[in-house]
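User: My instructor asked us to take a sequence, write out its structure as tokens, and then describe one feature of it. I'm not sure where to start. Here is the sequence I was given:
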Amino acid sequence: MSTDGLVLDGVSRRVGGRFLLRRLNLRVGAGECLALLGPSGCGKSTTLRLVAGLDPVSEGRILLGERDITGLPAGRRQVAMVFQSYALYPHLSVEGNLALGLRVRGVEAAERQRRIAAVLELLQLQELRERRPAELSGGQRQRVALARALLRQPRLVLLDEPMSNLDAQLREELRPELRRLLVGAEQPVLYVTHDQQEALGMADRIAVMEQGRLQQVGTPRQLYDDPANRFVAEFIGRPAINLLAADEPRQVVGVRPEHVRPEPAGALPARVERREWWGHQQLVWLETPRGRMRMLTPGDASLRESLHIGWSPERELRFAADSGERIP
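Assistant: Let's start with the prediction itself. The structure tokens for your sequence are:
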């Protein structure tokens, strides 16, 4: 089923006198995966609930294709949502969990079997069709939850922290698999996460949010190389960016740890405070006259306790000290 995408036009959500979301303008193209990324309480889950029809919009419009769905009840929006909890029926098999929703919607038996067989093959669940949720791994249960959502033949897929209940290794293994399932689909996908690595690995574009406001939308590379403000620069990138007082008054300089390197004498003096060895890399914590800094170096690099460091001037990012806005 084709769709022209999702549009949020000046959408706000207000509870009492407090804005949970303020005038959000956002577009998700057909076949695009857009991640909503930000700290807890930034408005990303609120956005998802408004699009799903679980909460009312205070201002603005939500368009899905050519339809204005702002006032439609959740059941009429043709939207599928996958939550962080799998919400599978424990007494039913994988096939039973998938069939239940189709039976409730009145889909005939032959069509049910056709759709279930197709989605089981797509998500490589054929051999698990008779197992119950307790017999599945966390990744397998999440795939079943996604399969159930796709069976609705939605015009939009909403994913709410879908991998937050999985351990780090399983999340890393499941990311490319989930990305493979979503890429090339006709439906737009709105993906909520607080994990930037997940957003960077899953999304075509990322919308960074803070305190109910949209800070910047762009590709992962754009957000990393060209952040609109200090908040985005600090939120995107691990290890976090170094922030230093600039020579110019009322400015802050940002330098990413991977751009800091040892230099000959005459550069900025530094003293090694501690190191974190990561295998192929090591994170070095430094004390300098300009404040505490971090430097990312090869894991086998040999460093003296006292050294000098520097970075290329074109790697610097400058921000206004008061507003945090980027200074070109």
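For the description part of your assignment, you could build on this observation: The chain is about 25% helix and 35% strand. Try explaining in your own words what that tells you about the chain.
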